[in-house]
Amino acid sequence: MRRIAPDRDQLLGIVAEVFREHGYEGASLALIGEATGLGKGSLYHFFPGGKEEMARAVIAHIDGWFEDNVFAPLRDSTDPQAGIGHMFEATDGYFRSGRRVCLIGAFALDESRDLFAGQIRDYFGRWIMRLAEALARSGHRPGEASELAEETVAAIQGALTLARAANDLDVFSRALRRLRMRLGLPAKI
Amino acid sequence: MRRIAPDRDQLLGIVAEVFREHGYEGASLALIGEATGLGKGSLYHFFPGGKEEMARAVIAHIDGWFEDNVFAPLRDSTDPQAGIGHMFEATDGYFRSGRRVCLIGAFALDESRDLFAGQIRDYFGRWIMRLAEALARSGHRPGEASELAEETVAAIQGALTLARAANDLDVFSRALRRLRMRLGLPAKI
DNA sequence: GTCTATAGAGTGATAGAC
DNA sequence: GTCTATCACTCTATAGAC
């Protein structure tokens, strides 16, 4: 038979955008079906657990992207400053300079939080931990590094909220510029 | 007829909590009816525009609270530092030290943003503007004051998201403590 | 026949409008 | 309370690949 369905990776990307735009409650199966071009049969074939499993898979997919493109470089760069610089570039790219919101952050505020609390806590916890380690390796005292890491991740989340609220992308790029400076990185070209 | 309904102020407070806990989509009229003790008939009597009007009224109600308890003190305090200190206390109290999320911030991330974009932009815009003015009056250069104000409001939003994600209230109080320091206020007792 | 992927009618529950 | 629309979801049927 013909294979119309995109592979799982593409599929999760499309479903993620529906959740991102409409929230967990607002993302109806009708919308998801429309966006993916799949009928309910196919959707339930891929995700027997229904909408909840779709969301779980989407969160895991995003988490995996950050693991590969943000957390791992923070952990593995021999030069911690380079890892932190990489984090800012990847973050700016991922959120399309403020055009995109953080789906996991949005889920954290929603009632859907209870369903996905573990995944949400893990994602942010790992981000802060990897950044704190990199900051410690680049010379900050451990306690200070932890606070600075927490502050940085919170600032990114807040900037996404504010950029969206003000409908002004500059809010996000200004925030990233300030954070780069505070973390001792050279101003970006 | 018997008057079971609380007055409009109380009513809006109750409806606000339902939106806060469940989001715009997730807050069903059944939930709202249950929380308020009002039937659908009464709800449509108070809010002929239905759920959308309820949300609009709730946002306006919250905005009014911040106007009175945060924005006005920032504008009117003869000592700008006192106004800023007052802002932190009111903010900490309002968000119950991180137990409560910012409904308007949550709406900003949701699809409901399109419905309430004007109100959302106004709220955050006024907060940042009043804070920037107070910072300018307390000695910061105007451009610096603007950036610092934006950074502060974003940090508060981000801390609320993170506190909720980590299920750890300390995230919020640590953020407020750092912000107080950065804005030149004495550490809180 | 078996497996995977598909479409979509049909389920009861519940949504918001009135 | 009544209305209709839509919700998440189930189920049956069907396709071609093996």
Automatic annotation (TrEMBL), chains A, B:
Transmembrane segments: none
Superkingdom per UniProt: Bacteria
InterPro entries cross-referenced by the UniProt entry: Homeodomain-like_sf, HTH_TetR, Tet_transcr_reg_TetR-rel_C_sf, YxaF_TetR_C
GO molecular function: DNA binding
Domain called HTH tetR-type: residue spans: 5-65
Gene3D superfamilies, alphabetized: Tetracycline Repressor, domain 2
SUPFAM superfamilies registered for this protein in UniProt: Homeodomain-like (SSF46689), Tetracyclin repressor-like, C-terminal domain (SSF48498)
Residue ranges flagged as DNA-binding region: 28-47
Assigned keywords, A-Z: DNA-binding, Transcription, Transcription regulation
Pfam families: TetR_C_13_2, TetR_N
Protein name stated in the entry: TetR family transcriptional regulator
Provenance organism: Rhizobium loti
